Amino acid sequence: MALRADFSRTFPKGPKVEATFEVELDCFSITVLFGASGCGKTTILRCLAGLDRPDAGVISADGTTWFNAPSGCFVPPRQRQVGYVFQEASLFPHLDVEGNIGFGVRSWPRQERQARIVELIQMLGLEGLERRRPADLSGGEKQRVALARALAPRPRMLLLDEPFASLDRPAAEQLRHGLRHVLQALAMPVILVTHNRDEALSLGDRLLLMREGRIRQSGSPSEVFARPDSREAAELLGFGTVVRTRVERRTGGLLGLIAGGVELFAPDPGGDFSEAYACIRGEGVSLERHGPATVTQRNRLAGSVTALHAIGPLVRVQVDCGFPLEALITTWACEDLSLAIGDPVHALIKATAVVVIPVEV
Amino acid sequence: MQRRARMAFLLGFALAFGWPVAAQPKPAPLAVAAAGDLRGTLEEVKRAFESRHPGTRIDLTFGASGSLTAQIQQGAPFDVFLSADAGFPEQLRQAGQVSPEGLFPYAMGFLTLWVRRDLGLDPIRDGLRVLLDPRIKRIALANPRIAPYGRAAEGALQQAGILEALKTKLVFGDNISQAAQFLQAGAAEAGLVSQSQALHPALTSIGLSWKLPEDLVPALRQSGVILARSAVLGLARAFRDFLTGVEGQSILARHGFGRP
Amino acid sequence: MDWEALRLSLRLASASTLLLLPLGLALAFPLALGRFRGKALLEAFTSLPLILPPTVLGFYLIVALGPRSPLGQVWENLTGSPLVFSFSGLLFAQVFTNLPFFLQPLVSSLGGVDRRLLEVAATLNSSPMSTYFRVALPLAWRGLLSGMILSFAHAIGEFGVVLMVGGNLPGRTRTASIALFDQVQSFDMAGANRTALLLLGFAFAVLACTAWLRAKERLWR
User: Fold this and answer.
1) Does the beta-carbon distance from B3 to C14 stay under 8 Å?
2) Residue B9 reports pLDDT greater than 60
3) Interface check A204 vs C, CB under 8 A
4) I need a surface site. Which of A85, B12, C14, C149 has the fewest CB within 10 A?
5) CB-based contact C120 A83, cutoff 8 Å
6) What is the ipTM score, two decimals?
7) Is B186 helix (H, G, I), strand (E, B) or coil?
8) CB-based contact C138 B14, cutoff 8 Å
9) Contact C102, C147 (CB under 8 A)
10) Which domain holds residue C113?
11) Contact by Cβ (8 Å): B123, B198
12) Which residues of B touch C84 (CB under 8 A)?
């Protein structure tokens, strides 16, 4: 029993959004649609819900056709049993929390309806807020009410459109921690749209990477993060350093890449190419002042510090070693080394921490 | 939920308030359509009649004879129509809208020239020629197409040979009452109205009038009809008899009308 | 003071406003929330009475409701008296001429309702009609009230159409504004003054009401 989607939507100015994927319906899973703003993730979600109508393709759930372009079949949202949570919660301002949560089940018998509302209030920790109006709720509370509202009619699938985007950082983190726990208790698939890397990593079972209207990569989050298939994907996934290099030599499964006059070693992904992007995570770069020339790291590049940015307990260090390189180290390490702008350092990068993405010719 | 209650309340309110059932007055009234020159006169007739026949009620509607005729032809529910001439009632009779008794003349109407007092003009000496004076900028008449007095006025000016000269000064009221109202409000300095109107205190206090002689314009043979579809024929006949009888005629005479 | 005329005006205005309620609510739905071919046509048609001179309106209404029209004849067969020159005829006429006054504030208010809320309702088992009554209208209630007040006020003041379709029948179709006209023509200036002052005061009260409502609406956003 699966949801099968294979559709596309073309916008008046030309851009096209297309999606082909499957999601199992009866069991819990979180699929994350990840991509930059404007890449079409929300469009896909809306088409699944029936809020937008694709131009071509088919969407079917468990054998029932929701959309079929050739035959003109289109099932409206209310018949799809899909729960949808919008980015800004969009609670009904003229109803209180109970009224909002109960909106989708107002045709149920009174007893059942009340019981269901209470159940959801407890599930999402909204006790005490039953009579509040949306205007008097915090951002996090609003999102939880929106979630409760979407879950009330027992949908077959839950769609979340950037649910944390409108919250400030602490609220977003707090909500995120509790969310997976809540969702796990439901036996339904969840599709979550986000442009936030941390959300995608921490919440998803499966990641669909989107760029310019198409799904480019799919797999488990760690798979996709470890092996982006393009420079844009790498940038999206937060690789601090993405630099264009020329292939100088290939030896023993390793590539020698030239960038900014220095040589960088990285695993050979195979294939015939002469230029490639070298993508290096900030976490994969260590810094030292002086030290033995022989270490396990294949890459030991000399350079000088050009910038220092503190981010909580970490420091992002920009180093110029022929090309701009970013290292992410702890504040302690930074203090130990007494790093300052202009200081000469050596950057140590394990070859395996360099992801090579061939340049398409 | 609240909205439903509100709406239900409003609906109930409306049904209680709005239903036209209550618009029907208790005793069936006599609906009389009358030419504008009878304003002021007919109210007195009505009061006298109602006191003679207790329990009856007369509703008066004034307008241009032509307009009223059109309305009657459209189905307006009048019982009696008192026109300012004989032509419009005749039209109705030929259309089969009139009771078998046909037309009854009830008064003679006289076209009267009225001029504002403070202009220093003398209509009694100079007659219609005062209208040529440059101090008279606007002359009020009733609409000749639908008001018999308007038609008579135009005819009189034509007869006196001054219609063309005065064309640009003429101002038309929808009916004779409106023409008189122009005079009272000062919108026109002079006008041709009915004798009954010229004798009204509102006009005598601010102007001078001159009744046009028979050789300039024949008196208007004001006639009435009882409408065939009336539901109160008995009452209608009683009213007609009152109007054409001694008491009615004396009231009419007092307001400047002649005997039919 | 012609109390009968005033009572008639109030009765006519409230009855026509209440008849407008179901008609207006039904028309506002496609106009505000629908997307269909011919929508512009519907908009134009329902706005006609705003622009047409009252005499043109009156003329067409007489043609449509008069004793020679199909509607007029059916009415006369059913009730024994003509539709024109009656309170009921005026009611028909008023409902039509006041339609735009009722619709415009309502449609405008409905247009201001966050579309996303309507989409949310759609995902929560709500049919378009149910969404209209449970979400859109409650959020646009100020527009609805505004529309009701405006059409009521306009009905009180309506003259040209009332005169043409209703005639000037005391107790039946002589509304306050017609009575005023009549008083002027009878040289009853004192009476005319009183009637006019009352109508003026009424119009002012209505405008104050709608202005207040509009101010509250802005705050509420």
Assistant:
1) no
2) no
3) no
4) B12
5) no
6) 0.81
7) coil
8) no
9) yes
10) 3-220
11) no
12) 74-76
